[in-house]
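hey m, so remember when u said the tokens were messed up on ur end? i reran from scratch. heres the input so u can diff it against urs
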Amino acid sequence: MGVSDGYLLDTHMLLWVLTEPERLPPSAREILSDQANRLFVSSASAWEISTKRRLGKLPQADSVVSGYAHHLRRAGVDTIEISDEHALLGGGLEWTHRDPFDRMIAATAIIEGLPLISIDSAFTTLNGIRIIRS
């Protein structure tokens, strides 16, 4: 199963794409600038952004939340919806990292066969995932 053709952005990278593209690391900028590359995000990122905005951890994300679908279309990013398969793998991963958003994003990358673009070193401790770190 899986799309296996493209790249999955973690939430941090997605936020930089949408709000601060100048902060993108060179390797990510190169991938994102190539129109032949398909870009994806897990719907877990929408959940994470909305949750963190509500908790006051992302107060600047109001416009991202209110225009989320529009921003994704403008950036050329497609959403991969959370499936039962993603949820079961995410919850069952043998991984010490406890963040539920990261677990769901990791499961999505694994099942869909996509490399994950991330600066988060937590992903490097998980077997079975391909990481493009910047």
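this time it looks ok to me. The chain has one domain: 7-133. if urs says something different then somethings off w ur setup not the seq
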